[in-house]
Amino acid sequence: MSADAIAQTLVTAIEGELAALAAEDADAIARATAEKVAALADLQAAVAGGEEPPRPLLEQARDLNAQAILQSRAKLLAVEKRLAALRPDPLPPRAPLVYGRDGRWA
Asked: Could you tell me the pTM of the whole model?
């Protein structure tokens, strides 16, 4: 497979990752990320083998990946905010129980 075809596969994988992030589909995110990592490894091997890197496709992949990073961070912050809302409030400190002069709890 040529470096151009691999780079196009990379772009398609990142677009799939973006769609999965928008749909909040964890399985699709994992599949798209695995495809992206595999395409990156194949592209690195192709370039190491002497093929010319397809700059326009790589720039497109870089921009899409930056967009995916921003979306995933936004999703993470939203989840953290929801989890924080579910946490119970801390209990107020209780005064220690002590015996008074009359032998009763004070």
From this structure: 0.74
